[in-house]
Amino acid sequence: MPIHLASLKYAFAGMVAWALWAVFVKLALRGATTQMVLLITYATAAFVIAGYVALTGGELDPTRWGLGYSLAGGAASGLGALAYYRSLETGDVGTTTTITGLYFVVAAILGALVLDESLSASDTAGIALAALGVAILVR
Predict the structure, then answer these.
(1) CA 20 to 30 Å from 19, out of 88, 97, 98, 120?
(2) Ordered DSSP codes for 74-92
(3) pLDDT tens sequence across 33-60
(4) What is the pTM of this model?
């Protein structure tokens, strides 16, 4: 599947936003509990997303299919955030984000196994090299 310019633009914006998120959370954890930082950051995120939906006139899909998987995704996101914040409490930003950043490897494999998405040889090589790079950084 070819990569579209709009997709790259949003991907890079997400990369920068999540990098800032990591630094801001680490700073917040210096003066607040994990529980408080989690509640404030995710309440703020919910507010930002609700504003996006309101401004774009996004249609909400209340079907069981969409709702069920949205709840499952929210639970996975919440558990991942909790683990990430707990790791940031005692670890450094570089190591924590590097290790948790490996989620893309798991997501790509699950995408192939569960969603029947294809992984070309170049996709597989890229994932392997990225995982190797992360492993080297963590050492």
Answers:
(1) 120
(2) HHHHHHHHHHHHHHHHHS-
(3) 999 999 999 999 999 999 998 999 877 7
(4) 0.78
